[in-house]
Amino acid sequence: MLERGDKVLVTGASGFIGSALTRALIADGRQVVVMLEPGVDLRNLEGLEVERLSGDIRDAAAVRAAISGCRAAFHVAALYRFWARHSEAFYEINVGGTRNVLEAARAAGTERVVFTSTVGTLGLDGAGGGRAADETCYPDVSHLFGSYKRSKYVAEHEVLRAAAEGLPISIVLPTFPLGPGDRAPTPTGRLVLDFLNGRVPGYVDTVLNVVHVDDVARGHILALEHGGQGRSYILGGENLSLKGLLSELAAATGLREPALRVPRAASLAVAWLSETVEGRVLRHHPAVPLEAARMSTTRMAFDDARARGELGYAPRPAVKAIEESARWFVENDYVSEGRRSKIVWRNGGAR
Q1: Region 297-307: what's the mean pLDDT?
Q2: Helix 187-196, helix 318-331: angle, nearest 10
Q3: Integer Cα distance of 159 and 74 in angstroms
Q4: What does pTM read for this prediction?
Q5: Which residues fall within 8 angstroms of residue 18, CB to CB, at 6 or more apart?
Q6: In angstroms, what is the C-alpha Rg of the chain?
Q7: Sign of CA dihedral 77, 36, 289, 339
């Protein structure tokens, strides 16, 4: 169990999940060391009393310096996107960076490590038949679409290798986090933002597991304190259809709900064209990455019973995550003035 004043490292602390975790640790009285990539956006850390160290996760010496003297470490940093001009960056950061953290933790005698992976590394065959996937569902590797999933899958195996060799570590698998502080925004928050800006003309028949980012942060701490050696835990919330999620957004904001159901084939065709022309020919980020389209057309229902039973994990209702995410984007000027003027919040409050 962590005590007040214990020194803890968080990599990726300026990001969406990392900053939520940092706030939770500070609220619990921990002394937090954050390792920050040079030039990264630091607004999520404003007003937080943390020890800041500048360094690239790919720099083994910088990682060793950051973890020195820390009782525990949370490795959250990752390249989380569905397209990059140079795909090798996914492996350099997500795999190479993870190996640096594992080796530094072993050398420093760190008592406990939590590695942030993704439910994208799990198999979803059961979810397609109406059964939610859990930690025991292994994937067909040919279904690990895109460099993000593949690199995280490889990184997980580096973590499991380290656990088998004795490093005290657990793995957490966030599902579809929403909430305040999604500055990038992440691919998950992009869906909410696109709805708010009127860029979601329709929906596909799919399922997503929605969870509040602050519950994901609390799940990390629970995994550190109660997680099994080399054991993985899904940190999820509620399984919602995409239509249901958009309905909740419409109810929360008073904006019109998309009524057009888009066939899966049409969605994939648009993404393929976008990635081919914008990504490969024009060499800039495609408006609709193919990996994102493949995920959006896959039923991603998950069962987080293991985390609830073994860790005491208890996430709040998904509707709270959805509404707080929408409010944050509006209040932080991510939404056009024309669209903001049409919003009538379900529970009142500023536009």
Answers
A1: 87
A2: 70
A3: 13
A4: 0.89
A5: 10, 11, 12, 34, 44, 74, 76, 77
A6: 20
A7: positive
- Type of residue found at 90: F
Q: Is 171 exposed, middle or buried (0-12, 13-18, 19+ CB in 10 A)?
A: buried
b/e code 89-98 from CB counts within 10 Å (16+ = b)? bbbebbbbbb
Q: How many CA atoms lie within 13 A of 25 on its CB side?
A: 33
d(CA 281, CA 241): 34
Neighbour count for residue 269 (Cβ, 10 Å):
12
What's the token pair of residue 37? 């990539």
Q: 140 by DSSP, 3-state: which?
A: coil
Strands 207-212 and 238-241: antiparallel
7-247+296-340: CATH superfamily = NAD(P)-binding Rossmann-like Domain (3.40.50.720)
Q: Can you say how many angstroms the Cα of residue 181 is from the centroid of all Cα atoms in its chain?
A: 12
Beta-ladder partners of 233: 172
Q: Torsions phi, psi of 24, nearest 5?
A: -65, -40
Cβ 326 vs Cβ 249: under 8 Å = yes
Q: What is the dihedral of CA 131, 137, 143, 148, to 10 degrees?
A: 110
Residue 288 confidence (pLDDT): 58
Other C-beta atoms closer than 10 Å to the C-beta of 12 total 26
Distance CA 260, CA 246 (A): 12
The token duo for 38 is 């040079």
Taking the C-alpha atoms of residue 133 and residue 302, their distance in angstroms, rounded to an integer, is: 5
Q: Single out the residue of 170, 125, 179 nearest to residue 307, CA to CA.
A: 170
**How do residues 246-300 score in pLDDT, each as one tens digit?**
999 999 999 999 987 765 565 555 554 555 655 555 565 556 555 555 555 567 8
Region of 29 (left: φ > 0; alpha: ψ -120 to 50; beta: rest) is left
Count the Cβ atoms, other than its own, within 10 Å of residue 126.
17
Dist CA 278 CA 103 (whole Å): 39
